[in-house]
Structures are given as C-alpha cells and as structure tokens.
Amino acid sequence: MSELAARPAGAVVGRRMPHESAVQHATGVATYTDDLAARRAGVLTAWPVQSEHAHARVRLDVAPALEVPGVVHVLTADDVPGVNDAGTKHDEPLFPDEARYHGHALAWVLGESAEAARRGAAAVRIEYEPLPSIVTIAEAIEAGSFQGFAPTVQRGDAASALATAPHVFEGESVVGGQEHFYLETHASLAHVDSEGQVFLDSSSQHPSETQEIVAHVLGVPSHRVTVQVLRLGGGFGGKEMQPHGLAAIAALGAVRTGRPVRLRLTRTQDLTMTGKRHPYHATWRAGFDDDGRLLALEATLTADGGWCLDLSEPVLGRALCHVDNAYWIPDVAVHGRIAKTNKTSQTAFRGFGGPQGMFVIEDILGRVAPQLGLDAATIRERNLYRPGQTTPYGQEVRHAERLHEIWQRLRTESAFDDRRAEIARFNAGSPDVKRGLAMTPVKFGISFTFTAYNQAGALVHVYKDGSVLVNHGGTELGQGLHTKMLQVAATALGVPFTAVRLAPTRTDKVPNTSATAASSGADLNGGAVKHACDQIRDRLAEVAAAHLGGDPGDIRFADGVVASSATERAMAFAELVETAYHERVQLFAAGFYRTEGLGWDPATMQGTPFKYFAYGAAAAEVEVDGFTGATRLRRVDIVHDVGDSLSPLVDLGQVEGAFMQGAGWLMLEELRWDETDGPGRGRLLTQSASTYKLPSFSELPDELNVHFLERAREDGAVYGSKAVGEPPFMLAFSVREAIRDAVAAFGPTGRSVELASPATPEATFWAIEAARAAGAPSTPADEPTSETTDAAASVTAGT
Amino acid sequence: MQHIVVTVNGVELADGEVAAHTTTLDWLRARGLTGAKEGCAEGECGACSVLVAAPDDDGGTAWTAVNACLLPVAALDGQEVVTAEGLGTPHAPHPVQAALAADGASQCGYCTPGFACSMAAEFYRPGRGDHAHHAPNGFDLHALSGNLCRCTGYRPIRDAASALGQPDADDPLAARRASPPPAPRPTRVDHDGERFVRPADLAETLGLLRDEPDATVVAGSTDWGVEVNLRGRRTPLTVAIEHLPELREVHVDESAIEVGAALSLAEVQRRLNGRVPLLDALFPQFASPLIRNRATLGGNLGTASPIGDAAPALLALEARLRLASVDGEREVDLAEYFTGYRQTVRRPDELIRSVRIPLPLANLAAFHKVAKRRYDDISSVAVGFAIDVGDDGTVVAARIGLGGVAATPIRARATEAALTGRPWELDTVRDAASVMGGEGTPMSDHRASAEYRALMLNRALLKLYRSTAREEVPA
Q1: Contact of A762 with A479, CB cutoff 8 Å
Q2: Cβ contact (<8 Å) for A26 and B45?
Q3: d(CA A534, CA A781)
Q4: Hey, is the C-beta of A47 within 8 angstroms of any chain B C-beta?
C-alpha cells in the first residue's frame, strides 16, 4: 500500500460527518459573497447593458444613463487600463464592440442602488448594425463555422472492421445543453484596501485564474490582487471560467470610483449571459457481432461551443475519451469538432464532456439492442471492459474487475431479474401506463486532462494551544471539500475534528491554485493538506520521542493524544505543541501535491491522462403515462465506487445529488432558443426559473438506495479514497434507458425506440405515439411473463 | 410619507424610506438579515422563504411560509415575520434546523434557510399527524414542493422532514399560535412618486379605485412581485386589499358556495374542507404551497392569464364573479368574463369581491394539468371537468374548462355538446375526444408544441374516462 493511501488507526477520515457548515446553513448565518455587501457601507451596484441582437456591431451612447439619479458611472472599454479581455484564450472582450450573442454584456452601469443601476442600464442608447448569426449546430455545420481544435481518438481500423462486421447500425444522436442553475447566481464584491491592493470576494471555483484575469484587466501584477472565496451556493463547473469577467467588472468599478462595488447577476442575467453545458450532435456507425459484442465504432461529435472558445477544447477532449464509457470497443475512430455559434459560451459542467461522450454509446446500445434481439442489460454486460484491456486512447483500464463486481451486486440489490418479470406482467395488463427498468454502468477517468492542473498547495498552522488552521487551494461549493479536508488534517495530525478550522480560500495564502473541478478537489488538496500535516507531525514526533522515550518512529498521534509505543508514555497534543514551540520547532508548513504517473499527448490523443477510473452502475425503474408522456421515477438502486470513502455522508450526498442532476438533464431540463429569423433570433426563451425547470421533489424516486463498493481502496489517492463529484452524474443514463424501455412496451417487441433528449413529457409522448403506430404490443396478455423469463434466462447464460 | 413597522424575529423594525416596490427580501437583506436568499426572484425556488403570522381558522395564528421576494414589505406593516435567523442559532438550532443539519440535507446551503422556513411552517401546522398518507410523523412533503435544491437531490431533506417530532411544550412559536396575528392596519407609503396604500375598509378601497383608475390592485402580490422583479414594473399606485373582511368570507347556502376573492388558496382549501372535489383536485397542482399561501382566486382571475390554473376549474364549475364598485355590485358568468388576452369585462373601478359556485355539483370532477414537471410548474394545458352522469349512465350535463389553448381560458362547448345526452361509455368518449382535440387555438412555445397541446386535449377525456372505467381494456 502506498503511504498516501494508508490509514492510521483512529483515522478521522472514513467517519460519517455532516457538512462542516451544515448548522450555519440551516440557521441562515453561513455567509456568501453577496451577503457581505449588505454589511459594508457605500457599496455601488453594477448592472449590465445587454445586447438585444445575436450578432451586431454596436455603438453605445452612455450619456443618458448618467442623467439617471443615483447613477455614478458607466464602465466601458475606455475605463480599462490593462487588457480588454475576460478569458484565457483572448477571444472574450470584456467590453465588446461587436455583440456576439443575445444578452452579451456591452457595458456596466454603477449605481448607488440596484434600482438606480438598472434604470441607468435601460437608459443607455445602443445603435446596432446587425450581422448574420448562427444559432444552431446544424446551421454551424452548414456554414462551416467552427473554432478551436478538431481532435480524433483512434485505435485500430474502424472502417475495415465495420466493413466486415455481421451487424452494422448507423444513426444520429442529439443531446441538449444544461443550465447549471446553482441556487446562488454569480457574485463579486470588490474594494481597494488601505495598501492599494484590490481585494475581491468572488463566487469563483478558480480563484487563481480570477486573480490573473482581474490583474490583466487592471494592468497590475497578480500580487496586487487578492481573491477570497468564502463558499459558493453551488458551482457545478459554471463558476470555473465564468466568474472572471464579472470579478473584473467589480474590480474595475472599485478602482475607477474608489468605492466598493458589488455585482450579483439576477437569475435571468445569469441564464442569458453565462456559459452552460455543451449541446452535442453525433453521427455514428457501430458494428456488432451476433452476440451483441461491439466490434467497431466510427463517430463524429460536434459540440456547440457558443460564441467563444472558453473550455470547449478540454470538454471535447474528455467527451472523446468517454465515448467508450465502460465498454471494450476493439476498433475506434471518433472525431470531434467545436461549432462556433451566436449563443452564450458553453463551458464546464459536472462531467465536463464525459456525459455527452457516454450519451452516444448508451444511445447506440439502447437503440440497437432490440434489433439484435437482445435485452439491453445483456448487451451492456457483455461489453463491459475486462482486466487487461485498454481504452481507445491507450490507457489500461485498471480494476476493470470492479465493473463486473458492481454490475452483479447491482443486479442482486435491485432484484433486477425478478422486477423485469414483474414489470412485464404489469405492462401486459396496463394499456395506458407502462413501466420500464434499465441498468447502465459508468467508468469515468479522474484527473485534469490538462496535466499541469494536477497539482495543489496547502498551508497548515498549528498554534501554541494545539489548535490547527488549514488553508488550501480548493473552494467549497457545497461538495463537502472542506469537511473532507478537516478530516484529512485531523487524521494526519491525530487530533479531534473539532481541533481543526478551515479558513476561507484566498489567493494570498495558497498561490497558483487549480480550479476546484474535475472531481479532483479532495484528491489534490487532500494530498497537499496531508503533506503539510505530515511535515509538522514528523517534527513533533522528534520532540515527542525526546520527551516520551523511544524513536520518532514509535510515536503515535491519535485523537489529541501523542504516545510512544516504546515506553507507553503519552502526552496531550497541545502540551507537545507548547513544548515544541519552546524548543523552537516550526509549527507550520506548506504542503504540495502533484499527481504522479500521468502522461498525455493532446496532439495524438494518446497516453495516460487519468490517475484512475471511478466506477458505478445504476438500475432505474420508471412509470410512463401514455396519455401525456409524463414520467415518474419509482425506484433507483445505485452501486458506486468511491474508493475507501473519506467522508461517507458527504460521498452519499454527491452520489445522490449528481444522479438527480443527471436525471434532470436527461428528462426535464430544456434550453430553448429563438431559432426563427424574427427580431428575437438567438434569444434564450427559457430564461427564468418558471420556464427552465430543474428537478423538484416530484422527481425524487419513491425509493432510492445507494450502496458503496466495499473494500475499494484506491492506492493512488489520499487515504485510499476516490473522487466522487462527477462520476455519479452519468448514472442517470439508467433513467433515460428505463424511459426507452417503458416506451418500447407501448409498441411491438424488437422495435428500436428513438427518444429525444431531454425526454420531457412531450418528447416521451411522441416516442410513445411512434411505438404505438408501429403496431400492438406483441406480448400476449394471457402469458405475460414468458418472454421476459426467456430474456432473463439468456442474461444469466450471458454471464 | 409614513413609517412602516414590521416585527422581525421579535424585534420591531421601523422604516420611513420604504419604496412601494421594495420587496420583503431586499428589505430584510438590507438590514443584515441575509439568511433569506434570492434564487430566482419569481417565487419558484423558495430560497427567500420566511414565516409570516397569518390568521388561522379559529382566531389564532398560523405560521405561514411565503416567498419574501414577491411580497412588498409595505404589505407587512404592523405584521410579524420570522426568518431562518429567528428560528434558531448555530448554538441553539430550531428542531427543523437541527434535522436539516444532521444528516446531509444541506450541501451548498444556499437553499437551506428557505427549506428551514417551509419546514417550520409544516412543523407548526395544527393537526399534523392526522394524515395517514403523509410521512409517519404526519409531515406533508408537499409543504416543501416550492423549494428547489440543486445539490442534494432531496432524499436527505425528505428524510429530515419525515423524522421531525412535535414542537416542545415550551416552544415559543408554537405558543404564539394560540393568540391572533396582528390586526391589519391602514398603510400609506409614498416614496419617489410611487404609493402603496392599504385602505382602512372596502368603502375607501372602492373610492380609491374610482378616483384613480390606474391603480394596481394586489392581494397576495404573487403576480405583482414577478412583474416588479423580472420586468421592472413600477406603478404610481398599488392598493392592497387582501385584508378586507368582505373579501375574506366563505358562505354556503342551498344554491351556491361563495368564496371571498382575497382568501389565499390555502385558506380556501382549508375553509372548504373537501366540499368542492374539483377544487381539491386543483389545489395541489396550483404552483406551490409558498404561492398558495398568498395567491388568491381574485388575483388569479384578475390577471386573466390564459395559463392561470384557477379559471379552467372554475369554468367547469360554472362559477360567477361578484364585482363591486362604488356604484354597487353586479354578477358576471366567468365564461363571459374573459374578453381577450389578459382582457376582461371588469372595469378599472371594480373589484372582484367573491366567486360563486352554483350547487349542486356535478358527480364526476377532475382537474388535469399537463406540464413539464409534476410539482410547481406552469400548465402547458389545463382541463377542468365537471360531468354529471345520471343513474342510467347517461351524461346529463358536461362542463369543461380549458387553459393554455387560447388567448383566454375557455369552455369546451362543442365537446360538452358531444357528450351531453349520450351514454358515458368508450364510444361516446372517443367521439367527444376527437371534438375536444379541435377546441381552442393552441400555439407552440417553449413549454409545448401546438400539436402536443391539441393531442393533450384529446387524451384528457380518454384519461378521465379510463379513470372511471377501469375494467375495460381495449386493445
């Protein structure tokens, strides 16, 4: 076992701890960025002037805004002392002279109140010179409008394999975008402090990058800008790249006026201005043998990148690396490209392209299974990776046996085969309402594919009284990172959980941090916190050995007590610390961690981009109303691999929450844009909570059972744990496949069901209509279970 | 100008600078009470929920959860509010807060104070525990259906709610329920050319409406709040009427049930207590409890939205509206009330006083709502059914109200005719369903396509029939 993965006796990691701020959350005292503004005097509010064209050259006359009472200033390009750009690719002008999408912020009004700033923004006169616009992926493909790279993941010779495959299917798969809809919209609060430093509170998942971009815009070195992140009201990737420009506006306003400036987007501003999950379009050809084994796949994935490049390239890279999901495909050629459209930027969102890539293969398997005469669960199981196999990009699928262990355990826990038979009986007697049940697996690679990001820092102080203060580079988005880091520090130092406090994330404490993203927060920052704590503990062990007897190697730290196994003498941690101080031993340390063993060539799309894979599988049962297409989730069972959990309650929350967010993406959440040639072309039509619907209590399954894979230590991560933020999102494919299964029951057996995504009630209704039009269900009502029994038998034989 | 005084968490806060459009949420936050959050500013997410002391049906106080983002703070003049901070503190959390904190019910925590308030309202609901179909502790999970959480997936919140006990004997908010809420008092706020007026009585209200035809009348202000927050609507005069006793009565005689237009939907549901099954079918599907605690029938009919859910039900019930003005009162058939998109026969000087539902009621009633999401969504199509099937199985009378398929809510007259006088059986229903599929002039929008809407009308009748005739299973 690696030193990183080994857990000492009495470890605080592995215990079921509530979120470290839970009681502050519930009592309303947990403080978020915009809450600070209410407590500061003289704060100005920034309000955007947004484009009402999808694409147009613009000229602004801000003079009328300045006439509005309470308006202090209107920020324009003229105010920028540094670089007029808010991105990392230099394609995101902070103040554009060309509106690139409907809702694009063109200028910002600073007012004494939100009311004054809003009125000021409405008073700005804008002259538009409209330009041709591209709103859909189809239009972009037609026009050849692309941006960024166009990579290919390739292994073997897919074209030849397809030429000889016994069964070849081809089709298109289209999946929609998704709005993050963090409950806290983007917020920044900037002021210039007594030393001339710009101090920013920001709801950023990537404070170091926010700092860099603010510094570029202001034309100052990074050391003159400090970004603090208290906590975020949800991020999900939406606050990785998007906060930078907004923070820069607040900072610019503070520098320009000498007063604190707050910027908090309204929900509609957030929806119409900030990036979302990429919609994807795919064309594919897939070859199978007679037993349903995948032989080859050729596909072209086109991402809708929106108006600028943002994170579209790495998102596409990850999509291509997850087209295989958990399945061995011998010959593969998957091409990717990024459409440039006049829409909001599309950006990171939980799964980061993984969901879109997996969507393709799960859609293929769900569609072709009936045509191959096989149960979809059988086909999925037969294609699962086996030990020794490698991904199309050349990485060994380590622990592939876990996929099979998870699959079998899920089958048992969910009573899958019995319930298949039960559902067949129900459906045979129920013409209007049908049930469906499906199982899908997940294999998700963990690490940033941008290798440099796989590093982290921490700063740990032990005070003379034995209390511990931890700083690290990760941000708390609700995912429980801080809870885990407290557990890591308490474990490494052998002190009680309550002896450790976490300070808000600040760029002046830990520099050059990576985004809290890619599920990597606990792996990377946990490694760094542990490293810092280990240094302090090693120094303390020497002091303890001198006082308690024995060698430093005999000293044990647990639960605030330090003992020598050589002499069985012990002392309190606080007493040891006090002693160490008097002996002039350093009681603080900087920790650093980098993930070893990664190697990735983005040019050839080959290598080892991931430290390890997270695995899981879910079985979902739905009931679909044939009158309306409305779907209800009846029961969901999940078996998921979180390694040896650092914090089981936190991990359970991540699994359940990610699953539900994935279910929302696939069955409910729908971004609709004005695609007409009318005056509103390019406008987001679902721009508020009343039109963009996320899961509510009504989408919670009646029964939801989550099991962790047991004895699942991951040797390459802190205390044997695994990342958990993103992988369970993709467990939700089980819901979509269960809907497909229920829809199929409205029509004849053996018919392929095509289902639009998201499978809203209307989309599901049309799929039911198509199934019904193809003929009556073929299961005879008088022997409802025979067919399913056969299917179950063949499944058993297939294992 | 006049001060307003609001008791927040037991402390009287006075303010002489309130604007008519200032929401309770913004007002609380500006005072440092930042537990309530803005998540959507339109009453969809519940992150801003607070508790208001409202009248119960027995002269005491019901702790009522409302969306602070939709409620003008001027409407709370003289009233009592409790926020998440007032429920408990980190050192002494309220039982609902302790339950939310204990077992994973908060992740990012942004929605949690709102959940705490919605949960507390249900915690204090008298009679909780009497319902077998709720959680074992009597907690009605529908109480939380107006609160959105993006992190947890809701399971731990459900479990936290289901594990709550009853309030302790010395619980101050429980004790507060025994005495009445503060009486409403006349309010007059005038700031920057915008006025908010709560008149003393009906006579003053009607006089004001006669003198100032531009006045905006608000009761629950659940629609007003959306207009103010999302569309920046500012009006010279806002008149609050939800306190007027004449608009808060429920009266039942042999010929009709009369419901005051300014009762909240939650109050109407409690006061009717199952007497109108069609309305009982409607209420749980109408927005969320946070909205139903403020929204009124008068408001839903007053805004005359073609997608308001009350109208289709009330059309099926053949409801009539009593309109009051200084010149007296008149009664209007709801079917003749709507004249165009958000247009009605109501004059600017008239107030909807009550809704009269004639008796007896039809023996078959249902409310079908087609929407993307089961809880807390706006209808793509809404259908109210009131069908009288005689002892011999013949349809004696059929009244069907439709929402979402025309510029106004409408009656499905042709379908009603196709049903009337025919036996309530599949052939009749199929014929009538094909007629119903052609009712109205549905449009395509971001909620649904025109084709889907038309087919939903067609299927609604079949679905209703199937729910009444389970034994038949056609191929």
Answers
A1: no
A2: no
A3: 68
A4: no
Q: Note the ipTM here.
A: 0.96
Whether residues B35 and A28 touch (CB distance < 8 A) is answered with yes
Q: What CATH number belongs to A348-449+605-670+688-798?
A: 3.30.365.10
Judged by CB atoms closer than 8 Å, whether chains meet at B154 and A695 is answered as yes
Q: E strands within A305-346?
A: 331-339
In chain A, positions 302-321, which contact chain B (CB-CB < 8 Å)? none
A67 is an active site residue:
no
DSSP A152-197: EEEES-HHHHHHH-SEEEEEEEEE--B----SSPPEEEEEE-TTS-
User: What would the pLDDT profile of A751-771 be if each residue is shown by its tens digit?
Assistant: 999 999 999 999 999 999 999
Is the per-residue pLDDT at B472 higher than 70?
no
Q: What pTM, to 2 d.p., does this model score?
A: 0.96
pLDDT digits (tens, 9 = 90+) for A416-445: 999 999 999 999 999 999 999 999 999 999
Confidence of residue B87 (pLDDT cuts 50, 70, 90): very high
Q: What is the mean pLDDT of chain B?
A: 95
Residue (of B339, B338, B390) closest to B362 by Cα position: B390
What is the 8-class DSSP label of residue B72? B
On the question of a common fold for A22-29+455-594 and A40-132+180-273, the answer reads: yes
In the set A20, A670, A726, A737, the catalytic residue is A726
For residue A66, what pLDDT is reported?
A: 98
| Interchain pair A479, B47: CB under 8 A | no
Find all residues with CB under 8 Å of B402, minimum gap 6, and list them: B312, B315, B381, B382, B383, B384, B409, B410, B411, B412, B439, B440, B457
The mean predicted confidence, pLDDT, of chain A is 96
In this structure, which CATH number among 1.20.1270.360, 3.30.465.10, 3.30.429.10, 3.30.70.20 belongs to the domain B244-361?
A: 3.30.465.10
Q: Which CATH architecture has domain B1-198?
A: Roll (3.10)
d(CA A437, CA A795): 15
Domain ranges within chain B, ordered by starting residue = 1-198, 244-361, 362-475
Average of pLDDT values for B331-360?
97
Say if the Cβ atoms of B40 and A688 lie within 8 Å: yes
From chain A residues 102-161, the ones with a CB under 8 A of any chain B CB are 115, 118, 122
What's the fold here for domain A22-29+455-594? Aldehyde Oxidoreductase; domain 4 (3.30.365)
CB-CB under 8 Å, B88 with A27:
yes
Q: Among A15, A16, A25, A269, which would you mutate to test the B interface (most chain B Cβ atoms within 10 Å of its Cβ)? A: A25
Residue B203 token pair: 């006579």
Stretch B337-349: mean pLDDT: 96
**B362-475 is classed in which CATH architecture?**
2-Layer Sandwich (3.30)
User: Which pLDDT score, from 0 to 100, does residue A779 have?
Assistant: 55
For chain A, positions 256-285, list CB contacts with chain B under 8 A. Answer: 266-268
- The pLDDT of residue A798 is 29
Chain B residues whose beta carbon lies within 8 Å of the beta carbon of residue A19: 101, 104, 106-107, 109
Say yes or no to pLDDT of B217 above 60: yes
**Backbone torsion region of residue B137, taken as left when φ is above 0, otherwise alpha when ψ lies between -120 and 50, otherwise beta:** alpha
Which of the residues A23, A24, A27, A232 would you substitute to probe the B interface, choosing the one with the greatest number of B C-beta atoms within 10 Å? A27
Tell me: pLDDT of A780 over 60. no
A652: chain B residues, CB-CB within 8 Å: 104
* Sole residue written with tokens 């994973």: B104
Question: What b/e string do you get for B257-275 counting C-beta neighbours within 10 Å, with b at 16 or more?
Answer: bbbbbbbbbbbbbebbeee
pLDDT of residue B293: 98
